[in-house]
Amino acid sequence: xxxxxxxxxxxxxxxxxxxxxxxxxxxxxxxxxxxxxxxxxxxxxxxxxxxxxxxxxxxxxxxxxxxxxxxxxxxxxxxxxxxxxxxxxxxxxxxxxxxxxxxxxx
Length: 106
Prior knowledge:
Helices cover about 15% and strands about 20% of the residues. By secondary structure, the protein is an alpha+beta fold. The chain has one domain (about 1-100): Beta-grasp domain (Ubiquitin-like (UB roll)). A hairpin with a 5-residue loop joins strand 1 and strand 2 (about 15-20).
């Protein structure tokens, strides 16, 4: 298990444990994290699991795929650190990952 900290738009934080192999979105949903809607259930068909990856973690989470970038075009307040949490697979290297949720999900 690895720990992931979600920081909501209002500054509230929630640290959850995630299983290796699941996605950051799945960890959020299974732990009741506010600000992650995940309307499509992780199919990369919406932008309702949009997060901002903390700059210290961007190299470890990788770059978005072309399909993910297309979906991010529909997200609210997209930034360089924007990712869809359904596309970030949990690995041991992500223990301590910090992500922030936007003010609104698209």
